Amino acid sequence: MTHGQELQAFLSRYFGVFIAEFTLSCFAVGGTVSLVFATYLRSPDRSLSVMALAVAAAVSAASHIAMVRGYAWGVRGVIGILVVALLAALPSYGYRPHMGAYVSVLVFALLALLVINTQRYRDMRVQLVSYRHIRKANRQAAKAAK
Question: Which of 75, 81, 99, 144 has its CA 20 to 30 A from that of 91?
Answer without folding.
Answer: 75
